[in-house]
Amino acid sequence: MVCGIIGITSSEDVLDKPLGVSLKEALKKLEYRGYDSVGFALIDKAGRLVVRKSKGMIDAVAAKVGFELFDGYTGIGHTRWATHGPPSDVNSHPHTDCSGKIAVAHNGIIENYMELKEALIDEGHTFISETDTEVIPHLIEEFEKKGFKPYEAFKKAVELLRGAYAIVAIDVNDPRKVFFARNTSPLVLGFGVKANFVASDAVAFLNFTRRVLALRDGEVGYITPEEVVVERLEFREGRPVWVAVDFTSRVKNIDWTVEMASKGGFKHFMLKEIHEQPYALASTIASAAESVDKLAKILTRVDRVLLAGAGTSYHAAYVAALLLRKYAGLWALPVVSSEAQWWLSTVKEGDVVLGISQSGETIDTLKAVREAKKRGALTVAVSNVIDSAIPRESDIAIYTKAGPEIGVAATKTFTTQVTLLGYLSLRTGVLNGFLSESEASEAFKSLRELPNLVRHAINTYEAKMASLAVEMKDRPNAYFLGRGLGLPLSMEGALKLKEIAYIHAEAYPAGESKHGPIALVEEGFPTIFTIVTADEGELIKSNVEEMRARGSLTIAVFPKNLEDIARLVKTPIKMPVVKDVAASALYIVPHQLLAYYTSVKKGLDPDKPRNLAKTVTVF
Ligand code: AGP
């Protein structure tokens, strides 16, 4: 899972506030990643290391430790999501060495920490936490004792680590530097004026700079207020040597704004992000026209397409596979990333594998892309984060333009993924001649209308879903049933309700419901149908009847012209009649709102569901 990391180094008083406050503000921006403890370390103006940390949420910890009381020019902060050792004050980061001069915050897992810890204990080091991270400051200390300068000692320590990590460290013996290292876990640098930043996500420092460098695996370095150094370990004549990385061409200006990364008057990020969908879709559609053509041309020549994704991105992959089949006549298969290896075993040159991931960092999806590449397939990333790991490692990258998504539950990234991939399906169908011109023009028109349709759907259904949430909030279970495109949308609806409202929600192909799941259905058991096309509606009628006959609370999201469905279900959610390529994004909106309001009515925080993190970088 992911923790949040920030490192700041500034000269003079450019931050305009105590460093402790800047660290706290950056950590607040990283809250969405999921955490149970908070801490920071800074070198104060007298050159002493100050560390304050505790189990709990940022505001509560801030009230306890007083971030505003501490100032300096170099500091690091951390939000921890427990892996090694339960959430506790002592297990919170940053961790320090025996002398209390070095502080380290870390995201990821150090696989060989036990053997390192034992060796350090033999050398006389004392450990106070149960974490894997604590070995790092002690290793640095050990190398300094052996005569290495702080940055050299940091690199020597990193050389010994195995596993996934993003690390930041500060050291009173070299007080203007924040050291960093990345392997698998995300880490980005921000280039400011008389101040530089390192963080797990650029949203942490957007109020200072939008000039960003996404670090790559194996990169290690440091920032000072004036300088950024990035190095990587290479083997020359069999010997490891650290060589400087020329990163100038990789520094990008990101078009995310501070407002995009703040709640802007909404109670939760999730609600704001649901409401942002019209803009996100309009930007994605506008950029799709330029970005997907090269890929569409390639797809006209390929044999098979596999689409890998996790969670919501898997549901987008499923929708896209159906659209690629329907509009471009392609053999396309969606696979859950963590299961991809069993499907990838016959992939070869001539095949295309899409890795779909809003964050671009999900390790299961990255692994699927790596495996596909090894087997000679062309790899394509579909991401919302420029230069993240999956786009970097893929042959081609296309991007949704959803802006930063902070809420743990994916909303605008799903609708933009589906739309971008729908657009790709249409373009491929046009280029390979599978799709007639008239059908293509009607379908493209529906995509152009989509932002307004989504805006209208939000306005129409927000209040209705809020009141339906009152009915849903005390139900322990729900089924989401669909056929065709309605199935992945049902899966997405169920995931939303499960992850933020903690209701046990299962999605099934509607036709499968009578092969087992129906055994649970009794008076008041909610079954929520999603119907995208008239064909699906025709087939699903008997399934609705079956549920009705058992007293189920039937709800359906469907095109408003399907009168039979309207008559059959208790709660009809009548949607505009629109081409399926657009309906695949539009018809999820009521589900998003239902999950959001059910969570809120249960008194939960939809932005920070328990046990979940926004980006999952562990297998
Ligand atoms: C979605 O609401 C979930 N939080 C989760 O399933 C997510 O979609 C999944 O972890 C994949 O993330 P990605 O798109 O960043 O790869």
Automatic annotation (TrEMBL):
Domain Glutamine amidotransferase type-2, first and last residues per copy: 3-226
Query: Which GO BP terms, alphabetically?
Result: carbohydrate metabolic process; fructose 6-phosphate metabolic process; protein N-linked glycosylation; UDP-N-acetylglucosamine metabolic process
Note the InterPro entries from the entry: GATase_2_dom, GFAT, GFAT_N, GlmS/AgaS_SIS, GlmS/FrlB_SIS, Ntn_hydrolases_N, SIS_dom, SIS_dom_sf
**Entry annotated with the keyword Cell membrane:** no
Which enzyme class, named as a word? transferase
The protein's GO terms of the molecular function aspect are: carbohydrate derivative binding; glutamine-fructose-6-phosphate transaminase (isomerizing) activity
Which UniProt keywords are present, listed alphabetically? Aminotransferase, Cytoplasm, Glutamine amidotransferase, Repeat, Transferase
Catalytic residue positions = 3, 614
Catalysed reactions listed for this entry: D-fructose 6-phosphate + L-glutamine = D-glucosamine 6-phosphate + L-glutamate
Report the EC number(s), separated by commas if there are several: 2.6.1.16
Where's it found, cell-wise? Cytoplasm
Per the record, GO CC terms?
A: cytoplasm
**Assembly with partners or alone:** Homodimer.
Q: Which NCBIfam families match?
A: glmS, PRK00331.1
The record, for HAMAP family, names: GlmS
Name the chain's protein: Glutamine--fructose-6-phosphate aminotransferase [isomerizing]
Q: Which organism is it from?
A: Zestosphaera tikiterensis
> Per UniProt, what is the name of the gene that codes for the protein in this document?
glmS
